[in-house]
Design goal:
CATH class of the largest domain in chain A: Alpha Beta
Structural class of chain A: alpha/beta
Shape of chain A: globular
Largest sheet of chain A: 7 strands, mixed
Number of strands of chain A: 15
CATH topology of the largest domain in chain A: Quinone Oxidoreductase, Chain A, domain 1
Number of domains of chain A: 2
Radius of gyration of chain A: 20 Å
Distance between the termini of chain A: 17 Å
Helix content of chain A: 25-40%
Order of helices and strands of chain A: EEEEEEEHEHEHEHEHEHHEHEHE
CATH superfamily of the largest domain in chain A: Medium-chain alcohol dehydrogenases, catalytic domain
Largest interface: A-B, 36 and 36 residues
CATH architecture of the largest domain in chain A: Alpha-Beta Complex
Oligomer: homodimer
């Protein structure tokens, strides 16, 4: 049985390119005792994976070439040597960019097999959990407050804004095109959305923030973080969730002016956050997310590429801001 | 009755100089109904006052020339038209840099008249309260953790390190001379103290931090904040208390690299803090501070200039890092 694999051919110097990857084939692996063989159905691609290709300063460890590119998938169990995970089960697992992978049974999570499997990589997966815990546990929004989110049309951001509305807050998005901004307002009910690439960004952003920002959910770092810092209200909270402006470069920008001065003046709390720290509360969050999705109050966006071989292209385009919602690659049915 | 006053003659362009101030005399003011006349005994000078001479970006409001320089004093009530504050009472008040000032009775605080009045400007005043709430309420140190403080020989810093020891933490100071560092270790019991102006600062700082920083109490911003950010342990807390590296300039530096990236990777919380937000807990804090001081477990350092006319010199020298402990100016007995 043939296993197509996409491997890291070279580490990027500067911006990532599809040429940093190559496709090879290998025999499909065989599961040992206590292991399962998984067939990849859907892969997800997130900007945070770019950090894993940096030489340092990432929570993902040091990168190497010649290995299969990492990534989370929804997969079907095709063979099992573990009673706890039967053949046919739908699971999420760290499959990487390949058709087949083998895992210890404890390393896969059996998930509900009702509806689109891809939701387990989006709203019920890391993206949805990140939006949920980042906003509610770290941001602590109160009714009537203004919540601003960057990369607002992204996999996490589009959920954050909707959750802010569910918490009776004003939701303001910052995104990279007028078309994305229009969709955030028209389809997801954001109160305002501003294109950070537009000429009038500063003025439009100021106006969109009204009397100021109570919670800023930062997916980008860089200039947008700097702009938000200047508009934080006293006792505002900044959820530091991602640094997409800094992933696709080997020369990270200096931090924003106003750190720490503006933090002091406005008693702002800025808190770095990784969703894994909330693992013991995932079940509670997923129950809430499912209720919101099935009742139509939370709309998860997906953005699809077809075919394993397109994963590098999907990744490069994502880093250039091409995605709307959770970017997935459909590998098999 | 003559009232000597030091007024702001010009706003500094770049570094503050004694020439930005001038001494004039005026008749002492007369208290109206409900007011008291205060004679200044001791003034305190803090680096944060420099922010009040900046054009913007300060919590102290916009500065102007031709007015008496602001500042907190311990004063003796010389005349009173308010039953609540009798003649002879010792008070703290926003006297400014002058011999006599008039205040509404509600604007002064009657303080204990036992011991050196200057302590009301140091360990029992804003400095001590800032150290106390910044460390305990914002930093939340746990026994065995490593607490690092910058401007460690300063008015707040020398108290923070001692309080960290009282909380069973390791205390590491960063200060601006070898002599200050030696005093922190030898006289106050800091576990380590590092001179940030020394050639070997990076290596010495790394070694002093041991397995990393759990709580960083930042009085400086700038490069020391940058160095501390790289050494924060997972779930570490940064107390943003002051930005002395940025006060005496009209060209603030960019923020530290690693914001927000390192905050995310290590889930670090960085929180701006002003002591005034804790006003309803001052009494509790002062009781604890007094117990520590009278039992000899907390040693407040003071650093004295003699004579009102030396206040500008005392301020300029403070900004250059000349002080050890709380800088005060004795004006009258």
């Amino acid at each position: 049985m043939e296993n197509r694999q996409i491997v890291i051919a070279s580490l990027p110097a500067g911006r990532l390119a599809a040429e940093n990857f190559e496709l090879r084939t290998a025999p499909a692996p065989t599961p040992g005792d206590g292991e399962v063989l998984c067939r990849t159905l859907v892969l997800t691609i997130g900007a945070g994976q770019r950090a894993g290709l940096q030489g340092s300063a990432s929570y993902a460890g040091a990168p190497t070439t010649g290995i299969v590119m990492g990534g989370t998938a929804v997969a079907r169990v095709e063979a099992s040597n573990a009673a706890s995970v039967p053949v046919g089960a739908l699971v999420t697992c760290p499959a990487g960019w390949q058709d087949y992978s083998v895992h210890a049974a404890e390393a896969v999570n059996v998930v509900d097999d009702d509806g689109d499997p891809a939701h387990h990589l989006g709203v019920y997966g890391t993206n949805g959990l990140t939006a949920y815990f980042g906003l509610f546990a770290v941001g602590e929004p109160k009714p009537g407050e203004t919540v601003v989110v960057s990369a607002a049309a992204g996999s996490v951001g589009h959920l954050v804004g909707q959750m802010a509305k569910l918490a009776d807050c004003r939701a303001v998005g910052v995104a990279g095109s007028d078309a994305k901004c229009a969709r955030l307002r028209d389809e997801l009910g954001f109160d305002a959305a501003v294109n950070y690439r537009g000429d009038g960004f500063r003025d439009e952003f100021k106006q969109a923030c009204g009397k100021g920002i109570d919670v800023y959910f930062d997916n980008t770092g860089g200039d947008i973080l700097g702009a938000a810092l200047r508009r934080m209200r006293p006792h505002g909270r900044i959820v530091c969730c991602g640094v997409v402006s800094q992933y696709d470069t080997d020369d990270p920008a200096p931090g924003p002016r106003g750190v720490p001065g503006l933090l002091v003046n406005n008693r702002v709390r800025m808190q770095g956050f990784l969703v894994f720290d909330y693992a013991d509360r995932y079940a509670e969050a997923r129950a809430q997310l499912k209720e919101w999705v099935t009742s139509g109050r939370l709309v998860p966006w997906m953005d699809e590429f077809e075919g394993l071989e397109r994963a590098p292209e999907a990744f490069v385009d994502l880093l250039a801001g091409g995605n709307v919602g959770t970017r997935i690659v459909r590998v098999a049915d």
